[in-house]
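Fold sample X.
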Amino acid sequence: MPARPPILLRIVLLSIAFVSLYSGCSAESSTPSTTHDLRRLEKSLQQVSEKPVNDLRLKRNSSVKASAPSKPSNLKVPSQAVRAIYVTSYVANGSRMNELIDLVNRTELNAMVLDVNSGIALTVPGRAGGKNGTVKPIPSARKSAEHYREVIRKLKRQNVYLIARVVTFKNPELAKAVPNWAIKRKNGTSWTDRNGTPWVDPYKQASWEYPIALAEYAATLGFDEVQFDYVRFPENGVKVDREVKYANTQGWSKDEAIAAFLRRARSRLHKVGVPISADVFGMVGSSYDDMGIGQKWKAIAPEVDVISPMVYPSHYSEGIWSIAYPDLSPGPIVKHALSDAANHNRKLNGKGIATAKIRPWLQSFTASWIHPHQKYGAAQIREQIAAARKEGIHSYMLWNSSCKYPEFKT
């Protein structure tokens, strides 16, 4: 077996491999050139992915200790598998929403993931208590926001399990409203990603209050669960680290900061009886590093109720796990990815550490920018679901940024 690359090289490759590939859960933002770069670099990472997960060494840092998620008596944990589709706020507010509700009623689907602060935002950053007051999410008075809230109430009346998607650290509105919370370049100016978007610095603990308060507001609207997306540092971490000066007064690693945020969020949301989940890159379940973005399985899984790796087959490299064309083999890709993730959990459980349930994001879009590719319809969705079930995972979420889903039966 070839020797593993040095740890620094692996971190560099992992970080670069995900430049502009993902947008939170979104796979639609990928470009052909980005995908080819990913595939080339992932080939170098294949031996990292194939190393048995049970070789994972758990290192404890005394400043940030993982703890088993608390289970208060009022915590509303679903009694059955959660099978969801993603719905943007714009689609939720439009005429197509009735079609999606009908789809849920006709199939095994029983849940929806809805945006809270993306698109039609239900709140806006505002200062409570005057100019020097705390920045909090203030409910929007716009007609579109009020209509959106009525849609949420309608879904609750129909017993749809509702998951609030909270975009966490890639929040340009918050970064602009409170420039002191934004990631800063070494010269003190605000850093922006390649698309010109500013990010909130995850090391800035003062900024954590906003997404947590937003999650609490979502709970008051009737959401059954809060899902933190973009709960990470910017991708291409090695390059970003050269450009910025983080407000890391605690001396934490990136994964320690992300874990500490989720621990605080879990504590707050559990008090109101709402479980939390976190979206992670698909390769997080098969890797050992934080990939330069602060997402490390052993740091996140003990801090949330549900962990959701984005195991879209189109996002894996040709030849990974001896699978020639991943997009053409959704079942084997999902099976291998979730097997690795489950092995992570088993290793942690063996050390007495409670871990989150695994609920993956599955691909329900056609990755037309890669070659060869196939159209993803009902058959491809069924194949991914069946692969997950073979790994003992019966919950899933389907992603399509245009919210167009085929009717399928499993």
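Fold sample Y, listed below.
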Amino acid sequence: MSYFRLIKHRLWPVLAQSLGLCLCGLLFMAPVLAQSSDGTRHVTVVDSETLHSALASMPQGAEIRLKPGLYRGHFHIEKPLTLIGAPGVVFDAQGVGSAIVVSAPGVSITRVTVQRWGQDLYEKDAAIRLMPGANDVAIIANRLVGPGFGIYASEVSDLRLLDNQIQGDEQTFLLDRGDGIHLLKVNHPTVRGNRISKVRDGIYLESGIGSRIYSNHLSDLQYGLHYMYTQQDEAMDNQATRVSGGYALMNSQGIHLIANTVKHAQEFGVLLNLTHDAKIQANQIEATQMANSVAGDLFSEGKGLFVYGAQRNQIIGNSVTGNQIGIAMALGGEDNAVYQNQFLANTTQVRYVGEQRVEWSFQGRGNYWSDYQGWDLDGDGIGDSQHLPNDNLDRLFWLYPEARFLMESPIVKLLKWLDNQIQDEHSAGVVDSYPLMVPLNAFVSHTGEAL
């Protein structure tokens, strides 16, 4: 048989069959473009290969629908696309790097689970990482479980992070974990309805403007909400539980912290550290307790409110209950408005470190103090005598905490009453000239009216 006849009768059928199988395989792997009734072009993918192909080939504005399955590897979104998962869609970065990297604006990622991404915080390993310029991105209803950052974004704007579940690796040392949400130079983000636990900081914001942080649940982590060098932010209806600190406002300006709760923190409920022109209003702060604390040591006891070198802030209508220290103020924090709060059953109601006389009332209304022993003969709801929540005897007990058990004795109560009577307008310390006689029945809203 000649060489050409051999190819024609023996090899060609085999080659043709193999080529046909390859073509069928390629056709099977290639995503098939379709169009919805609303005109949106979409494609359905089933595995990592078809997803990579769709990310590369789909036109801008298209929708990629993921079938349930395991999507291993790393995926880059470099054009405006919508990624929609279904129950059982799992991205697995196999312990290295970021699972999904977004470098284009107008991207949406919804209903996927991401696991096993990297834990190199220097390299910003994250479940979902947004690169500079990825503006107007929506990340909605995803579940992220891993050791590095949950969502990391830098130099973007108009980001929406809604209804995600983010969980860190509790086997990793707390400070070696990534933050649940880390936003660096991000302007006008909306972060709402997320549940974040077992990370370093729940939500960390640095050098951004105009964030809106609403209705998030933050638990078992360092700081629930942590601001650094930010401006004109608002946080409302968030809950922080079992944290080192609830809400840390550091070197920031113009933050409105309204109607949030923190329970079972260790170091502080709300911290104002070199932060100015903030409004801290209608928050509930309960049971801030530091284990193995040293009585009388400001930095080792749990503080409901901690004002440290902060000025021109309004602290209004908050409920501060059952903390080791109700409110602490130090390092020049005198120029703040503190009124219409209630301080209930804190071991030490006020710890003021300073040499000035500080008035905590406004327009004839002060705060409610559970330890106030005055009376109200005219029945106007305001105590007839001023209240000194950190008088000379209080300061003496700070120096000698072993004598604290004497504070409820009749003789000490008499001495505190006498000290109150002889204090003059030049005496140093906090004074409430118009103490409220009954606990507040309602918090004060951000408009100044009862909620």
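Sample Y note: The CA atoms of residues 263 and 286 lie 5 Å apart.
Also: The chain has four helices and 39 strands.
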